[in-house]
Amino acid sequence: MHIKKRAAAATGVAAAMAMALSACGGLSTGSGGAGGSGASVGSGSPWPTVKVGGVGVQADIPDISQFCGTKPIKVGYADGNDNNTWRKATIALFKAQAAKCKNITQVVVTDAQNNTQKAISDINSMVAQGVKVIVTFGDAGQALLPTVQKATAAGVAVVPIVSGIGGTPGKDYVDFVSENVETYGKNLADWTVKAMHGKGNLIMLGGVAGSAYSQTVYAGVQKAVAEHPGVHLLNTDGYVATDWDVSKTQQVVAGLITKYGKIDGIVSDFGGGSVGGIRAFIAADKPLPVWSANDSNEFAALWYQYHKRYPSYQIATESSRNWVVEAALNKGLAAYNGITDTEPSTYNLEIIEDSTNPKMMPKYDKSLPADAILSSGLTTAQLKALYK
Q1: Contact 327, 267 (CB under 8 A)
Q2: What is the residue range of the signal peptide feature (predicted)?
């Protein structure tokens, strides 16, 4: 396994982020949003023992044993759309963490299948079943907020991750846990533009249409491109939707190749899906562009397979950060059990693989399946079991 925890100092940029809302739902740049000052929300909060809005790195996430408590408890993970390897790895990590608490009697997992009404129903069902801590990937955005507020009022500790749902962390739910999403997008785009030598055509690939997360990544890409007049962002009206799906990504990228012809760089917010796009270039017999994303075993392996044929083909990744679910479960348990928890809400990511840097070459594990995410937080044995 090639998992590194980087204890770099948190930057002031992330600390200054604020919750952003858009017409498609609760968008978050990755900060704690309203109330995210870095201090405990205080006695006026439904969950006064949990600090909201702190900024840090993966190494700041403490062991779950501090927050298990002793009361028997049911916990749940409400996924918005369990349609890819990232989602499956995150669920596996959630279950693995929950298994470390002997008093957790049941782990409930649901898949809303990208259906807002089912996402709402899933959370309501968990509450009715007596689940006391719910971590959710809120693809449905702000449409989930009334349901989450209702769960909070019923004494359920809810922690959204990665995709914000609006509202106020510390009041409407325990906290919002994510990476600094806009900075994540800008970091990838900065590297990509540099590898493109500051000129050429760039495209950003995102997830499902209307995704709060992908739109925020896109905003970071736009900022990077604005600093380089020689780079042309071809998709000027927003990210290109791929549903975070390998097959659809291949189809979409094939269409982009036909439409634009020359593509010099791609920023993607899903490395696992990017392999489909790479296949599209190979099938079209087109030179592979500079490509940045989050890490994936096959994404790295494909670079080793094709970079000699296409010298301009370089890649970089940031962590796929499945491990934010660890912090979210910690916060939910701490809130419900009344245990003090001061770990960060927002996590700064950095480039962890860079094919242009001999000290940061892409890493892959031949003993693991192509879908494996080496930075997920799962052990080699857990990854083998997940992707067998």
Answers
A1: no
A2: 1-25
